[in-house]
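Need the bound structure for adenosine-5'-triphosphate, inputs here:
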Amino acid sequence: MRLTLAFAALRRHPMRTLLAIFGLAIAAALLIDMVMLATGMRESFRSLLTSQGYELRVTPRGTLPFDTEATVGGAAELVAELRAHPDIERVSPSLGTTVQVSSAGSSRSGGTSAGADTSTTSATTTSAFALGTQPDVQGEYSVLTGRAPAAGDSVLREVIVNGALLQKLSARVGDTLTVTTGRSAQLRMSGDQSMVIITGEARFLYVPPGLPAMSAPLAAVQTFLGDAGRDRISLAMASVRSAPGDNQNNSARTEAVREWIETTFSRVTAISTETAIVQVEERLAYFRQLAFILGALSLVIGVLLVTTLVSLSVNERLGELAVLRAIGVARGGVLQQIMLEGLLLGVAGITLGLGLGLITAQWLNTILRDFPGLPADLDFFVWSAEAAWKSLAMLLVASTLAGAWPAWRASKLRVAQALREEAIG
Amino acid sequence: MTRILIEASNVQRRYRTGGTDVHALRGVSLRIHEGEFVAIVGASGSGKSTLLHLLGAVDAPDSGKVLFDGNDISGLTDAQATLLRLHRVGLVFQRFYLMPTLSALENVALPMAEAGVPTTERRTRAQQLLSFVGLGERASHRPTQLSGGEQQRVAVARALANKPALLLADEPTGELDAATGKALIELLQSLNADGLTCVLVTHDPALAQSARRVITMRDGQIVSDTPVAEHVVVPTAGDEQTANAASQPASQPASQPASQPVSQPASQSASHPSSPQPSSKSAATAPVEVTRRPSLTPADADAAFGAKE
Ligand SMILES: Nc1ncnc2c1ncn2[C@@H]1O[C@H](COP(=O)(O)OP(=O)(O)OP(=O)(O)O)[C@@H](O)[C@H]1O
Ligand SMILES: [Mg+2]
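Answer from helper R.:
Posting the output first, comments after.
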């Protein structure tokens, strides 16, 4: 009966109720999005950094964790020494640089399609991110088609490229490309040209999806760079031997290895992935704070909305409520009924808001992912069921409590007085 | 002599509004026995509604006592008073005050739901009550789909839901035309004939004559309390009854026996016609138990007054 009355009260002004539910849904959607945003970037970065299983990042001293321009020399020796350490399991050195790539028509091999595209006889050139890795230990890309490039100093070096590069050059797996190093395509300085063959297509974890990228064995990229790349790397990742389940000991060992690296090699810095994550989180702190403030605001808006609507509805029904009380409905009954109205609004608004929030989160995520210069696998909005339920439960409790104030006032109604006022008015 | 259902002794009610004291009731005493049909008349502002509210535990007096079935109800807690109203008192207002969003049936079932009557049982009884007031076919209609007289009948059915011992009606015909008002009074008369104690506030002296006892109030006091002679005929439709008719009893139909003028000295006597007249030809068709039998079980009293009593 209470539920019937509560439903009926909301149905009495359908437009008003719908608007309130819609407003509440927007507030709920905003809250969900903000919670997803606040936790999302952090979780996303964390999984990005931990997915490869390397605990330590060794970078040139005095550079920021994700600076790809700086390099450190004496790479072979450095890597060898790192590998010699008993607690270091694997080392993955890498060198990143920017190269010019062209699909010189004349160099097109295979002849499978040469006859078809006579229009591409003039070379298409694009700049691309070139990443030198050791394919057997690399954690930078995953192969989509074809295979990873093999080391070897044949004339035709092997590279694996991403979709963006294939698209830019309208190339395909098996084609040959010309790689030119140098600061700019216009100057064509250093002019060191190499012919490479595409062995496969890959998805690069840390490269924005729209940016053309290729990866070759480390030695190959070092030769692309000529003198500037000889025996240099920009990053080495190291994984530390660990005992499964023994987190305490593992992180202690990681820390010991990290200290050993820092003291042994003056030219590099080693930071643990954990520390890198903390650094990222610190950089994201403002973001998260903003998200929390906006989330809290939407909570407040939701509460105000419900309070306003329920108050309005109570005020215009004082006579009815007085009659209910007069014919024997207990104070608690009136209280329950009015709070039920708030709860129903909350449930409706939140249900709608959940859908709305997820849709907008997806939409915003695709927009933000296209933001230039961000890794492909970084998500801004990450659905965390726990966080979502918590925030929705919070909103539900809030909207129920928002109805409590008008409900309490209604239950305190002085029956005789209200009846009288109703009879007059 | 039947038992005393309600007894008020020297009841006072004051209202303080903006510095001025309104003395709505200045020491009212009265006794109403089980089975009586009492009309309270008097000028506007004389304290009729205030008195009715005190009798029905809707409001509490500032001083004096109200005994309901021998129990003092002037100091009940809100919860106790609510229970008393739910189980023992039926209230009918001038406006019909049905829940606009509920059907007639749901409106009648509402007090039963509050009293914890199981769903099927209360639906059955609500349907019976609606048939009793002549609206059996309109059970699913909303108040807005009913005429004023029909709405007021639903309100009466609702008041009867929990088989009250006392029916209080504050100007129940105030918004009805004469014929509809008359039919409603006939309904109340038939209920009274079945043993239900009724107290009716009205401005309409003709309607007052359909009661068996008329209490006249002036200025917060009872100025007369007189039995009405046997065989009452309610004025026929078309008679436009106005408030000033109260001072002109002669204007009433000749068939009516001389009604007692309001100037009669107040008498607290409980003398009243004790032989119930046969139920008038109201819409009463279905045999339905509408009144609580006067004798109460201890459990009833507990329910109504709470464990404290
Ligand atoms: N809540 C209140 N606050 C202030 N004064 C009140 C209040 N309730 C009643 N009164 C005053 O008490 C007096 C009696 O009021 P009451 O409503 O009982 O009169 P009534 O006889 O029912 O009048 P009517 O025939 O117009 O309904 C009036 O003077 C009224 O103004
Ligand atoms: Mg009144």
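Comments: The first strand of chain A starts at residue 56 and ends at 60. Chain A has two domains: 2-45+284-424, 62-108+118-266.
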